[in-house]
Write a structure and sequence with these properties.
- The structure is a homotrimer of 156-residue chains.
- By secondary structure, chain A is α/β, with parallel strands linked by helices.
- Chain A contains six helices and five strands.
- In chain A, helix 1 links the parallel strand 1 and strand 2.
- In chain A, helix 1 runs parallel beside helix 4.
- The longest helix of chain A has 16 residues.
Chain lengths: 156, 156, 156
């Protein structure tokens, strides 16, 4: 039993699959896993719908452009305005491969620790009310403390 | 002597150079190196030409769009429809810097362990017959077992 | 007190923020930090203005396209020809979040070790005179020696 940390910087659907697949694999082996969501990765933690959060005009622009939940994030190649993601999700369903939503639910059931990066939330104009419940909020010092205890640390 | 693992998620030419350069450097220092190719990184393992593999229509779309070998992958900046990659390769040749094909050959001669991620192969519709010989096929559990033994683990 | 290494492959503004934020955080905790700048990440080390360095035509093309310093690098999402970066920088200023230039200055004051990858400099046609002073020049063997001593190694 050991610890793994994953910085989820990218909000792309395929990279989220990779991050959560590694997390689930490690949790299944009884490892502890801490995922630190920063910048575009925060998309994966957003609640669907609009939240009532006060924002500056510029913050509204960024948070308005960001996908509102994992299932609507683009893929990093051949996205074609979302068509690529839709195709990828269809192939995954045919092959009984879990969606990002399912992978995240599975990781949470197995006790993953999810941390939202507070500095990125400020930069992108994302408030706590817009993110899913049951997560923690912290900065780089917390990430580093976790990473110091881990034997595998990835930046995705 | 220690172990290194590299997840090769991206199939971009410049990132493949980075991955294989690190692998070769470590192998030259008598380290063990395991490279785990997943998603677009699988491009680097494809045999040239068409393979006779059964695919669904959607799988055909993805695997058809994927570059058929490392030397035709795009670069992550200034690719301009392949022109950027061609220029980069020309500069590398003038400077006697090895191509991805040469770097991969060198890594294999030095005993790198190459693993193709079976889940990604399913998602992208890539069959074993389409990939080069002498590699292993496995999932995230195998990657994690390797990473647990390594002192440097990178996600590229 | 331990050591961290960060490979800065990407030259995108948001990824540079991530890299330098982690570096500053670790330095504040009295860790040693080595940042290895390779490929597009070299943009962050460029001096403003033109340098008098001999280049081949192809090298001129690449180095001419590369941003000339950190503050003009694109962001990885919603860049819109630099507008997205400008917006991000404005939001950061409003929130009193440090720019990449400030983060780099802070990291240097705290003793970060910055290494420019000599192979990438050859590929992209970047000479020593074009890069900021007080940095080291080395290849993958030096990176690996540093990584072997570190407990956290990231590829950004």
């Amino acid at each position: 039993m050991s610890k793994k940390t994953i910085i989820v910087f990218s909000g792309e659907y395929d990279r989220l699959i990779a991050a959560f697949t590694i997390a689930n694999g490690a949790l299944a082996m009884d490892d502890e896993v801490t995922m630190f969501f920063t910048f575009w990765g925060l998309s994966a933690l957003r609640k669907p719908g609009k939240a009532d959060v006060k924002k500056s005009f510029l913050q509204k622009m960024f948070s308005g452009m960001l996908p509102h939940r994992a299932e609507t994030t683009p893929i990093s190649n051949f996205n074609f305005g979302g068509m690529g993601r839709a195709l990828m999700k269809k192939v995954m369903k045919q092959g009984n491969i879990m969606s990002v939503t399912d992978l995240m639910a599975s990781a949470r059931e197995q006790g993953v620790k999810i941390i939202a990066c507070t500095m990125s939330m400020d930069v992108l104009g994302i408030g706590k009310d817009e993110l899913i419940d049951g997560i923690e909020y912290a900065g780089v010092a917390t990430y580093l403390a976790e990473a110091d205890e881990a034997n595998v640390n990835l930046f995705i």
